[in-house]
Specification:
single chain; 370 residues; Purple Acid Phosphatase, chain A, domain 2; 3 domains; 6-stranded mixed sheet; 19 strands
Length: 370
């Protein structure tokens, strides 16, 4: 059977005040085209469907359009709530939507929802486990010690009564120990939130959500699908992709194919002097790092004329790039305060001071040292 693993859509997200609805609509359209090409048996969406507990109406409409298209194509879709989602909103109408092949995780009540799919190798079970905190799990497993998320997920999986002779798939939204994180993941990661990958060892495939970088954990069949778009500058170098999986008979290795996703607008870091950067221009989401040693008045406002989706401006000089090494201690001891600062300025900025800067610094030193 072939299935597609999606996660962390974060519909309705904003970056530096910019709405991403247009970008998200574009990438979902691209995903829809790939789905038509791949013709999967079903689709898994591993949480954080929305970016907020109360998503804006345009985000709800966008998800409705996407799922309606999948339903019309006759593709079953299985969706769980992530830590950004309201589990009550995700669960609303789940029984009714089951009839359309769109399956949302219900509120967790100590038992994960299970669905069964079939192919030429027989049946396979899909378990929907929404984002689970230790405090929530304690309500349903009072006889067990559940100090952290790892214990919570173990208890939840232990209650699933898994038949190991069958093929089993889980859709889960947790932080797996050792996962590579990004700045855009909300809430703490690691510590009491960390879950070891081995808790999913009973499953032929674990479709994970929460971490934004596509990555395998422990083995190729325990995977994060990653976000379809870059949601922070820390993800600027991350490739975004669609995860296509093929599961054969019990005991076989899951074949995973990653298909590149191309955004409407990329997210990247641009570096150079103000004049160099102003000479270009792009509609991408950009963080501009200026190499100028003097501040440019209203730099971001001016740059917005050629970079309408500018995320911010930072200044970088030689001091930030590499440590300054001074090895001749005797020369340092013999130098005057002005000579010391002059040498420091030159090494830090990669150029000498101007006459005006020299005159200003000389006055400051005379005022301090008399």
């Amino acid at each position: 059977m072939k299935f597609i693993h999606l996660a962390d859509l974060h519909l309705g997200r904003r970056i530096c005040g910019f709405s991403l609805i247009e970008d998200q609509r574009y990438i979902l359209g691209q995903i829809t085209e790939m789905i038509a090409e791949e013709n999967p048996d079903f689709i898994l969406i591993a949480g954080d469907v929305y970016d907020k507990l109360s998503p804006p109406v345009e985000a709800v409409t966008l998800l409705d359009d996407f799922l309606t298209d999948l339903s019309r194509r006759g593709i079953e879709t299985f969706i769980i709530a992530g830590n950004h989602d309201s589990p009550e909103r995700i669960a609303f109408g789940a029984s009714l939507m089951n009839q359309s092949g769109i399956h949302f995780s219900p509120l967790y009540n100590g038992s994960a929802e299970r669905f069964t799919v079939t192919d030429e190798f027989g049946e396979a079970d899909i378990y929907l486990l929404p984002y689970l905190r230790a405090a929530e799990a304690r309500r349903f497993f009072p006889e067990e010690a559940i100090p952290d998320c790892a214990a919570a997920v173990r208890a939840a999986i232990g209650a699933m009564d898994i038949d190991s002779s069958r093929r089993n798939i889980i859709v889960s939204h947790q932080f797996i120990d050792g996962g590579e994180t990004s700045d855009s993941e909300r809430s703490a990661v690691g510590g009491t939130d960390g879950v070891p990958a081995e808790v999913y060892s009973d499953f032929d495939y674990a479709a994970l959500g929460h971490l934004h970088k596509p990555q395998a954990m422990a083995r190729s069949s325990i995977r994060y699908g990653g976000t379809p778009l870059k949601y922070s500058i820390s993800e600027a170098e991350q490739p975004k992709c669609l995860t296509v999986c093929e599961l054969g008979e019990k005991g076989s290795t899951v074949k995973v194919t990653l298909r590149d996703l191309k955004p409407l607008r990329d997210m990247r870091v641009i570096e150079g002097s103000f004049s160099e950067v102003m000479g270009d221009g792009s509609d991408d989401f950009v963080l501009v790092q200026l190499t100028d040693t003097e501040r440019v008045p209203d730099a971001q406002k001016k740059l917005r004329a050629v970079y309408p989706h500018i995320m911010g401006v930072k200044y970088i000089n030689e001091l930030q790039r590499a440590p300054i090494e001074i090895s001749e201690e005797s020369a340092v001891a013999a130098a005057s305060p002005f000579e010391l600062f002059e040498g420091f300025f030159s090494k830090a900025n990669g150029k000498d001071m101007t006459d005006d800067q020299r005159e200003y610094m000389q006055k400051m030193i005379e005022r301090i040292w008399g």
